[in-house]
Amino acid sequence: MSETCVLADTPWLTSGPAARVLALLNGGGEEARVVGGAVRNALLKIPVGDIDIATTAIPDEVIRRARAASIKSVPTGIDHGTVTLVLDGHPFEVTTLREDTEAFGRKAKVAFGRDWVRDAERRDFTINGLSVDADGVVHDHVGGLDDIAARRVRFIGDPGQRIAEDYLRILRFFRIHAAYGTGDPDRAGYLACIGGRAGLAGLSAERVRMEMLKLVIAEGAAVAVTAMADGGLLLPIFGGVAYMGPFAAMIAAERELGLAPSAVRRLGALTVAVTEDARRVAARLRLSNAETRALDSMGHRWWRMAGMDEARARRRLYRLGEDAYRDRLMLAWARAGASHDTAYWRELATLPQRWRAPKFPLKAADFVARGIAEGPALGHVLTLAEDAWLAADFPLDRAVTAAIADRAVARFTRDHRL
């Protein structure tokens, strides 16, 4: 049975670009509504991101109306009925109501329709199957209102069938639960995900990456990821061991420090014990170059971060830079286990807030003046001098740094004397 309620305190629905799109597409025998995540978030009273719109109008009619109103239209998914309208720099995906005729995930064959119930029934989860019209009336054809009230994530219809239509819905089930659900995942959905886990192998790495990076930073990530591990769903994704203890500890450490959740940092805690793990995970998920470098840096001898005094920590911070230092240190913290000492790790993690490394005061010219020729020899001497400067705790006195330079030259000359 369909239910309705009225959505209050939604200024984006009564004025601004979204309201203009609805006004454009309503009338003349056609109807448009906001659908999906925007409705869900508005009901949960959390920030609304992208606003997607469904309409009875076919794509050609959407484009015709947009052109008449001098609104830019882009046929971003025209075969599936999606046209993107751009107003005041805000993109709105407008999709004609659809019915699946053959289900093959993203390659499903669809027919355009005018039935709001059938359109809702082809979506993934009940809390994503709601729509709201221009008057603020929320239409629920799938039981989403009750599930929002209960903070429960359920598949629409038969979970196994929904998953077989697109196996990415396995990951979306846990990601949406982590973001909007409470308690354990819905049992029927959970069992269907376990039953369909072989289908994960057919997903593109890019789609898996997108879902996993969103999942690990969600509010309820610890519960959702633990459920995935218990159901044997992480091995097909990562191709190796998942470390649930360090993952939970990383979340706790971020909260202890007041840091925003970091997807790569949490992914490192979950999957990385050595650099080989980092490279495997980066390849399987096709992480970006920046993400790959960060994950690899975290896994590089992270255990050396444990037991440091502040002098040694300053040297590490100088060598690594603030971001890499903090990430690697936090991986060591997360993997500390029984030796966990919050006060000790917090002191090390907040070092960049208390101390900023000075610049190495010696230059190439200082060594050329001491008779070192340009080329590999010069680079070698600079390295020796920098190491000595770090060991001396970053002195800036000119007499001290000159003595460091003299000793570096003397050592190089001695070591390379024929």
Query: What is the CATH class designation of the largest domain?
Result: Alpha Beta
Helix content: 40-55%
CATH architecture of the largest domain: 2-Layer Sandwich
Output the strand order for the largest sheet.
Answer: 1-10-9-2-3-6-5-4
Distance between the termini: 92 Å
Query: How many helical stretches?
Result: 23
Shape: elongated
CATH superfamily of the largest domain: Beta Polymerase, domain 2
CATH topology of the largest domain: Beta Polymerase, domain 2
Give the total of domains. Answer: 4
Radius of gyration, CA atoms, in whole angstroms? 28 Å
Report the mean per-residue pLDDT as an integer: 93
Strand portion: 5-15%
User: Could you tell me the number of beta strands?
Assistant: 10
**Unreliable segments (pLDDT under 50, ≥5 consecutive)?**
none
Category by helix and strand content = alpha+beta
Largest sheet: 8 strands, mixed
